[in-house]
Amino acid sequence: MQIPVFSVADDPGPDFASLLRRQGLSAAVPDGPVSAAGAVPHGTTVVAIRYADGVVMAGDRRATSGNLISHRSIEKVFPADRWSGVAIAGAAGPAMEMVKLFQLQLEHYEKVEGQPLSLEGKANQLSQMVRNHLPAAMQGLAVVPLFAGFDTRRRAGRLFQYDVTGGRYEENDYATSGSGGLHAATVVKLGFGRDTSADATVDLAFQALVTAADEDSATGGPDPTRGIWPVMATIDADGFTRLDDSDLAARYGRLYPGASA
């Protein structure tokens, strides 16, 4: 493919997603029920929780196709850029493609403008991408992400959740998405404290995912035998930091001492 060239009068601007659509590179919208082609892998459950210095994001590792486990170690929490992260729930394939395009969009904007997009602008950009995905969502390929980050202007963590129409809602304390989200939210609600430490908030997110896995068959719990642990990350003044599996294994042993390792 030849790289497109534009004149000064025909500048496409910093919106990379719009540029792709203009070049005819957008994915085709399904013209029939997706279920006719077979079950689509879906991912659940994801959690975002504010704490004193930032935000914790976490997601289990299971993807299901109907009543079958299609993947045991899928990743659902990704860095969007240095100061923010996105967690996916819904149709796994389109969700991962949305994350890749979102990451590229933020990098493209920063290179063109010479400075990163504001956290509010990043949340709005993801909202537009979810809204543009609505035709596919109506065919059964819904993507419902969570977005969170450290606002370098306010010096505080912020988090946002979405609906399939692209509606964007900022939450003050916590947000969940996915089939186990209700169970996870109950655990977080009972243990939440905005002034708690990052370590205590990671413990709370971990317990929320374990409880969701215990109540929801589509959510996968920690699997010490296979060495599969949730994806968990903190986002604060130091940026996006993913926790090591060794840390999560030790945390699991401390939180659930009676569990088999």
Tell me what the structure shows.
The protein is an alpha+beta fold and 261 residues long. It has a single domain (39-255), classed as Aminohydrolase, N-terminal nucleophile (Ntn) domain (Glutamine Phosphoribosylpyrophosphate, subunit 1, domain 1). Helices cover 33% and strands 24% of the residues. The chain has seven helices and 14 strands. It has helices spanning 16-22, 92-113, 119-132, 134-137, 181-191, 198-215, 245-255; strands spanning 42-43, 46-51, 54-59, 63-65, 68-71, 77-81, 84-87, 90-91, 146-151, 156-162, 168-171, 174-177, 231-236, 239-242. Strands 12-2-3-13-14 form a five-stranded antiparallel beta sheet, with helices on one face. A five-stranded antiparallel beta sheet has the order 6-7-9-10-11. A four-stranded antiparallel beta sheet has the order 5-4-1-8. Helix 5 (181-191) packs antiparallel against helix 6. It is globular and about 65 Å long. The chain starts with 15 loop residues before the first helix and ends in a 6-residue tail after the last helix. 40% of the residues are buried. The mean pLDDT is 89.
Features:
261 residues; Glutamine Phosphoribosylpyrophosphate, subunit 1, domain 1; 14 strands; 33% helix; 24% strand; five-stranded antiparallel β-sheet; globular; alpha+beta; single chain
